[in-house]
Amino acid sequence: DAGITQSPRHKVTETGTPVTLRCHQTENHRYMYWYRQDPGHGLRLIHYSYGVKDTDKGEVSDGYSVSRSKTEDFLLTLESATSSQTSVYFCAISLRGTINALGNEQFFGPGTRLTVL
Amino acid sequence: QQQVKQSPQSLIVQKGGISIINCAYENTAFDYFPWYQQFPGKGPALLIAIRPDVSEKKEGRFTISFNKSAKQFSLHIMDSQPGDSATYFCAATPGNGGATNKLIFGTGTLLAVQP
Fold this sequence. Notes:
The complex is a heterodimer of chains A (117) and B (115). Chain A is mainly β. Chain A has no helices and 11 strands. The termini of chain A are far apart.
């Protein structure tokens, strides 16, 4: 599992409330990603980070923000949750730039199932 | 140009048969092509990956076939087993270009292997 944990694993919240999801890694990887997974869409990139305090938007970033104040933690915040943000959220790390990497090997955490009522 | 198109959407195979899932891409800058396997309630797990300097890569019962000129790649699962029943995703990325190295995913194939 590449030492990736996500919390919480399940969350039910109401429309309009802020929500923060946490991704924690133990292996000092530089690159971290947040994806959402929805039926028929596969995995879509929300935001990513290429170092502490270095983040950028993915293809579905509207309504989400991220922060990375230390290497091991990458936080995803829904400022004001909407029903369209009901999804399963996955965090991932990349081995890019490491000695044995073939390319952009990404390893995923166990996911957070978020329901917005 | 950033899309990866995956087919079929679902697949039913008999135990012992060969499962074949196909993907196509347009962006010639892509040069790393992984396949992921996902079981219900779990995160995607890297299964096998290939770079375009080879046409085939085999790991156990799993083989990637790569056709650079056609911009297509496929996953073959030999001697398919009920335990292989899962959703499979192809993906692609520029291997070393830029700071982002975003993985672009296909929409997934739900494989059911019948005993």
